[in-house]
Amino acid sequence: MNHLLQRLMAEATQLTRHGRLHEATQAIQRALRGGAARGPGIGRPAAPPSAPHAPWPAGEALVLDGPEPVIDPDQAGTRGDERWIAGSVAHQGRTLAYKLYLPPAAAAAAPLLRPMVVMLHGCTQDADDFAAGTRMNALARDLGVVVLYPEQTPRANAQRCWNWFKPQHQQRGRGEPAILAALAQTIAADHHVDAARVFVAGLSAGGAMADIVGRCYPDVFAAVGVHSGLPSGAASDVGSALAAMRNGRPAAPAVSGGPMPPTIVFHGDADATVHVSNGAAIVEAARNANGKTAGKPSARVAEGRSSGGQRYTRTVYTDEAGRSTTEYWQLHGAGHAWSGGSAEGSYTDPAGVDASAEMLRFFLAHRRNP
């Protein structure tokens, strides 16, 4: 990481910790613009699929445990000394594929251990599509951030959705939350990742699963990002999932037995696939989970407009020390798509505020307490 970029990121982190969010966002945007000339991250463009993008379709779940990662060198790609690795984890005779983005070694800031973001795609998507659409690799490149993209198997769900609506995938130690947490820990150990700075984010079904994983494993993930998702416990089968998507449902009580990691939420108020009230429910659940430890929270509300003209309302909840614990971006007029993404991927809204950059800004301001 060059000295200017490192200084700007340190400045953004300090500004966020002191609640000066507008200035923090400007600092990280200056940092990201400064690194843009080095080229985009690796990840092929993908055309939008014709199937509707919904986070619930039926499919028999595959319960996996005990990851054993296998790197396939024939599928590994490089650009300079950055790497785009295809790998898999083996479980009871089945596999869960993933893609892993490793930034250039020169981008690593001192200390050598790097942060990592786990990105959970939506239905019908895969790792390459999600990487292209969110531009997360391009943004992570000069920040020295590792990005992991687990891929749902069609055998577990016919439309590649994470099974957020099934009880066996809503608990610690079982199903998809267990394998995702274990995969994150294994990759972190193998690739010099700071265990206190592992984050999880997702879109739609992936956003719903990110919320579940964060609630189940606050001892693994330092912060959570949910885009157009649903709250943990909102459904127990396909029927209740459809109802929650149409009308919204309150989140179930925290299942982790402890506080929820800091959480940032994006949701369009014109989302015709997942009702916007689900985003508000995630925010409320995160605030309630942290109520015993966050003191008396206060809220800051700001209205704004993206460079592409999309209006938004950003609400930031802070604890009594002024630290951000929950952040909610209500995207006015936006539908079911990743805000500020690239048209090279599916289900993106290039005119929106840059959700990827804002998530990275939020994530890098937080560490998991040991």
UniProtKB/TrEMBL annotation:
<feature type="compositionally biased region" description="Pro residues">
    <location>
        <begin position="46"/>
        <end position="55"/>
    </location>
</feature>
<protein>
    <recommendedName>
        <fullName>Esterase</fullName>
    </recommendedName>
</protein>
<dbReference type="InterPro" id="IPR029058">
    <property type="entry name" value="AB_hydrolase_fold"/>
</dbReference>
<dbReference type="InterPro" id="IPR050955">
    <property type="entry name" value="Plant_Biomass_Hydrol_Est"/>
</dbReference>
<feature type="region of interest" description="Disordered">
    <location>
        <begin position="35"/>
        <end position="58"/>
    </location>
</feature>
<keyword id="KW-0378">Hydrolase</keyword>
<keyword id="KW-0732">Signal</keyword>
<feature type="region of interest" description="Disordered">
    <location>
        <begin position="291"/>
        <end position="310"/>
    </location>
</feature>
<dbReference type="InterPro" id="IPR010126">
    <property type="entry name" value="Esterase_phb"/>
</dbReference>
<dbReference type="Pfam" id="PF10503">
    <property type="entry name" value="Esterase_PHB"/>
</dbReference>
